[in-house]
Automatic annotation (TrEMBL), chain A:
This is TIGR02186 family protein. It holds the Pfam family Alph_Pro_TM. It comes from Bradyrhizobium hipponense. The keyword Transmembrane applies. It comes from the Bacteria. InterPro entries: CHP02186-rel_TM. Residues 1-20 form the signal peptide.
TrEMBL record, chain B:
The keyword Isomerase does not apply. The lineage of its organism: Bacteria, Pseudomonadati, Pseudomonadota, Alphaproteobacteria, Hyphomicrobiales. It is a multi-pass membrane protein. This is Probable membrane transporter protein. It is found in: Cell membrane; Membrane. Keywords: Cell membrane, Membrane, Transmembrane, Transmembrane helix.
Length: 256, 305
């Protein structure tokens, strides 16, 4: 009985023992704290590909794609148009529950790793990641070259929040790998999911997940939480602070 | 030294913001104004979103007008009756302004409206003030006495009330309306409105110069405190850390500005202020007319999970 349970547990833990390879990964820090003077950081993801007896003998080289997804949020992308001589926001699209941070890393170009078909199915590359939009009442992702979708990705990339790097994963040995996960200064807080997908000779052969968390600590987080949750108290305290500062100034600089 | 602003969600250099506060404070002390019309644009130019800038500057103006109001109170240069009538309008106007602000933000047109209001208001007030200052300067060159103005139509309105300290007898209708207008634009644009309020009170309501600045500061103080509160409750956009740095810089700069202002003649001061206001207005106009670097913008609607 116990043995049977253990076997089930093991099967679950290994994510399908039927697969020939096992991926073992770890991030350098599972809990990143953002302090008031935080100015960006880089996490490191380590891992190795463990072969077992059922691994085909001709399988010697592996390819990896690492996807890091930050907490999801709804976002609106607006487009300005030249109207009445000035630039005004006119059209907009709503993106639903899209990752606030999204990074895709690989050891070589996505095209070289796998076929376009598999890349699309496994959401490999920023063009293939599912970004749900609400288009006039319908929910769908659109073609990668859609103006709003590409503008959305471009703007997020400019802020360092979306990134794609086909040279970020390095194999230290044929089975041991590492990659850096850069986190910019304005990194969104929350839980980050990391998906590691393993390919060999163009075929998808397995994946594993891990996660890390970004938390804000200190005075700054205290302020942000209270501003959102206790708006009235926060407003009163800010108003009182303004009065105090004004009063102090009139004392300090009093001439008579 | 970098500091992360919790609400603006942006790391900034503390000394840069402190210097900006001091510079604006210097100008505001020199001209006897709140300086919101300079502070809000400066914050927008360093990358803080217009919404957060407007909401946070409100508390900064409250601080500087409070220290000013205190010294005017000690000199008995505030008319309490006039201030309370103005405040009736001011508080209503602020509430309306914050409500409009929230609606515009939901429509995605807030930034445009802030920019448009700046263009219209600042270029109008700026050019009027500039030309008026120019004329006054030429008059004093020629040695002429400024013409005394007679009572205007405003003094024919009903519901008159006696304002003892200002020694005027005036209808409450225009006073309340002025309060509403100043409160409204103050909440939307993140300005105290002193630079519009003072001329209106002098030229339209004929409030004597002895009480005009002190009384207008009371209106600025209360409407800005109220705006801070409402922006904090409805939009959660007030950045207290940003506001505190601005306040400290602002009140310090204002002291030196006030001293510098005493050395310059009134007409020249008005000319300079007009020019300054006009240039901020033009800066916003240019921004609206030229093709933006990026036609697309993203706004996050709150992170869930």
């Amino acid at each position: 009985m116990i043995r049977a349970l253990l076997a089930v547990a093991l099967t679950l833990m290994l994510g399908g023992a039927a697969r020939a390879e096992r991926l073992i990964v770890s991030v350098s820090n599972h809990r990143v704290t953002v302090t008031p003077n935080y100015s960006g950081e880089e996490l490191v993801l380590f891992g190795s590909v463990e072969k077992d007896a059922s691994t085909p003998a001709d399988r010697t080289t592996y390819d990896l794609v690492v996807t890091v997804m930050g907490p999801r949020a709804d976002m609106v992308t607006r487009r300005k148009e030249h109207t009445f001589g000035i630039w005004i926001n006119t059209d907009y699209r709503q993106f639903l529950q899209v990752p606030s941070y999204l990074a895709l890393f690989a050891n070589r170009s996505f095209e070289a790793i796998t076929s376009p078909e598999i890349a699309r199915r496994q959401q490999i590359g920023l063009n293939n990641v599912l970004l749900m939009q609400r288009v006039s009442g319908d929910y769908a992702d659109v073609v990668p070259n859609d103006a709003f979708r590409s503008a959305f990705i471009r703007l997020r990339t400019q802020r360092g929040l979306y990134r794609e790097d086909a040279a970020a994963v390095t194999f230290l040995t044929p089975t041991l790998f590492r990659t850096g996960i850069p986190l910019p200064a304005e990194v969104p807080i929350g839980t980050y999911e990391v998906e590691i997908k393993l390919f060999s000779n163009g075929a998808f052969i397995g994946k594993t997940d891990t996660a890390f968390e970004i938390v804000k600590v200190g005075f700054e987080q205290f302020v942000a939480t209270n501003a959102r949750q206790n708006g009235l108290v926060y407003g009163l305290v800010t108003a009182a602070m303004a009065l105090m500062t004004g009063w102090m100034a009139s004392i300090v600089f009093r001439k008579d | 030294m970098q500091l992360y602003l919790p609400i603006a969600d942006l790391p900034v250099n503390v000394f840069l913001v402190l210097a900006m506060g001091a510079a604006v404070g210097f100008v505001s002390g020199m001209f006897g104004i709140g300086g919101g019309f300079l502070m809000t644009p400066l914050l927008i130019f360093i990358g803080i979103t217009p919404a957060v800038a407007v909401a946070s500057v409100a508390s900064h103006i409250a601080a500087s007008s409070f220290s000013g109001a205190l010294s005017y109170w000690r000199r008995r240069a505030i008319d309490p009756a006039l201030a309370s009538v103005l405040l009736c309008g001011g508080v209503t106007g602020t509430a309306l302004g914050v409500w409009t602000f929230t609606q515009l933000r939901a429509l995605g047109q807030l930034d445009l409206m802030i920019a448009l209001s700046y263009v219209v208001l600042l270029s109008t007030v700026g050019s009027v003030m500039f030309s008026e200052g120019l004329r006054a300067l030429m008059r004093t060159r020629r040695g002429a006495v400024p013409p005394r103005r007679a009572h205007n139509w405003i003094h024919g309105l009903p519901l008159k009330m006696r304002f003892k300290r200002s020694k005027i007898y005036l209808s409450v209708i225009p006073v309340v309306i002025v309060g509403i207008v100043i409160g409204f634009i103050g909440a939307i644009m993140g300005i105290g409105g002193g630079f519009i309020l003072v001329p209106i009170m002098i030229y339209l309501l004929r409030v004597p110069t002895s009480t005009v600045i002190g009384t207008s500061m009371i209106l600025t103080l209360v409407t800005m405190l109220f705006a801070t509160l409402l922006h904090a409750v409805t939009n959660h956009l007030v950045d207290a850390v940003l506001a505190l740095i601005l306040m400290i810089g602002g009140v310090t700069g204002a002291q030196f500005g006030a001293r510098a202002g005493q050395k310059i003649r009134g007409e020249q001061l008005r000319l300079l202020l007009g020019l300054l206001i006009l240039s901020v207005g033009v800066r916003f106009a240019v921004e609206l007319v030229i093709r933006p670097e990026d036609l697309f913008t993203i706004r996050e609607l709150g992170v869930s999970g």
